[in-house]
Amino acid sequence: MRSLFVAGALLALAAATGPVIAQPSDEAERPTEQANAARGRYLYFQTGCYACHGTIGHGAFLAGPKLTPPLMAFEPFSAQLREPVGRMPRYGAETMSDEDVADIYAFLKAIPPQPTPDSIEMLKDPS
Amino acid sequence: MTGGRRNFLKTMSAGGLAAVAASGKARAAASRGGTSKVASSVPPIPAAALETAPLEPSESVQTAPSDAALSASARAQPLYGSDYMADCLQHLGLTVIPQVPGSTFTGLHESIVNRGMLREKPLDLLTVTHEEIGVAFAHGYAKVAGDATATIVHSTVGLQHASMALYNAWCDRAPVVCLTGSLTDPESRKNWVDWMHAVSDGPALTRDFTKFDETPRSLPHFTESLVRGYQMAMTPPQGPVVLAIDLNLQERRIAKDEALPSLRKPRISAPQGDSGGVAEAAKMLAQAENPVLIADRTARTAEGFGALIELAETLQAPVIDMGGRLNFPWLHPLNQSFNRGAVLREADVILAMEVQDLSNAVRPAPNARLISLSSYDYYLKSNYQSFQAMPKVDLAIAGDAEATLPALLAALRAAIPRRSRSAIADRGARWAEDRKGQIARARREAALGWSIKPITTGRVWAEVHDQVKDMDWAIVGGCHFEGKWPQQLWDARQHHQYIGDSGGYGLGYLPGAAVGAAYAHRSEGRLPIVFGGDGDLLMAPGALFTAAYHTIPLLYLVHNNGGYHQEIMKVQEQANARARGIARTHVGNVLPGADYAKLGASMGVASQRVVEPGDLRAAIARALEVVASGEPALIDIVSQGR
Fold first, then answer.
1. pLDDT category, B464, cuts 50, 70, 90?
2. Does residue B298 contact residue B401 with C-beta atoms inside 8 Å?
3. What is the value of ipTM here, to two decimals?
């Protein structure tokens, strides 16, 4: 009970201040099975994907490559999780079901288009 | 360089957040007395101290005597060994001295404040709150100033605190002169603490990662050891040295007929690679179809930076800058640092200059012929493994790269046949075209997540760049964990605009080094900027106190990602490999709830906290006003992990 309280308190703190390294969620916050993309978002954070790949899969230098855009096809995506190439942790069936993988993929697919540099004044090509 | 870039600190006016800073400046002005050039280095007495003990700066602090007056005074008063030591520091130009006070160097401390700080070219004694910060300060200072300075630490416990920072300086090839107090004579130890803080051979603690140490037995021996230590620290490969200064030697009266120190500051000429090796390297590069240049701690000065540009443009060869220093302009068409794999897979000859991790740097090019030009070959220590894995080198030239580049350039120009010029030009054009694509890609990636929370590191750097791009900015910390966006999108054209990272990746380097580097930039009127980790700041937060207390302008952006990001990823990797799940891997890795704006404010630094991406612009503008007024400013930015 105490650990749940602590986890809940830390989550509340995370929501308030927004540090990127959040704590694992508790059961009350688990989304429904039907909401694939929403559940995928939960899993994306709960299983630590965000830590290396950023909170919307935008990637991070010296951590994890960009996942989207463009999002790779589902088969190689799943294969990379199951038997990763490079230093990525292995997510076997014992820790991540096929349904989990599909939901995470659905979350990444649902991420809205991001702005282009031409739409941001300070990122425009000065030439 | 434009006048605006040269005079950042003069051209912006204070306002907004500067109100916080202004009170600090007012305190400083009040305690200075405002009349003495020398006394301007004396920091304000803290308000709390004034309330509890109504100390006023003495007349001697407010009005500095001339050297002549000091000499007259000296003739009338006895002098001490530590006066002699302070004079040595001044003569050698080791004038900026960060220190935590300690009972084994009280003699030297007194001589510095009552003699060294009152000279026409005064010493500047700075208060730091941890010996690790003192060494890091000297480390960062040296990389900007191009010259060593001294830091003083207490015996035993002080040097123990300083040791990790000395290891960083060792790995980063940075010159630092570290003086540590000592009390070697048992008859002089008054109590149990003196015994606890006594050691027979203090510098033994750091001997494995310093270039030289000595425990001088007399004042002339101190002079000799200090000059020798300075010379060894400054000669490439540069590094830290330690001198133990005995308290009895500091307290010893100098007889009237004893000479005060007379020493010369040597101009350091770096070792150059031998002419045979240079000629062979030139021939290999001239005949190569796809030569590649790899730089790391290559450019020690602006001259080295210019020489590398000349070399690259002569060969029209791509340059991979590993980032130990600013070796090559970041947006130069031949800068292929973010295209390393593709460049190296085509390489047939590689010239690596002062590259620390050479084996990994050339891993994509196992069949290319490799020339190593490096002063690292002169290193003689072996216990700590900072020398890295042994690379497969075809030609190893022991020599300082910067010192050798002019000879290599001359040999190369003579070795390149006329018929090759067209092919060389074509090579350059191809890399230049590729570079345009890399920059366009970096812009696209910086735009990703532009409006999300936590704020992306790409947006932080872009927002800062937008406001400082026309100023004389200088980044005083590494960018590896903050996306390396400046290296991709900022137009760095001068050597002083980046100084690399810690060297040894010992956490706690950044705050002290950033403040030390900012101190060195202050006299040039530059704008020092750092965007560094929350974990690094928590390791040595007292550096913010030093920046505020000594009015050192610095824009300090905190990369608040809520934890030890690198480690949480690695523990997750372990847990997944063992099929145990990652639900508990945050334990011991997170730093939830820390408020770095409050931390900064508590140290006297004008501080803000930013959570919303849209608030960044105004916060940066306010902070820049504070920095332009001559004070440090901090922004705690709740950010993505990287």
1. very high
2. yes
3. 0.82
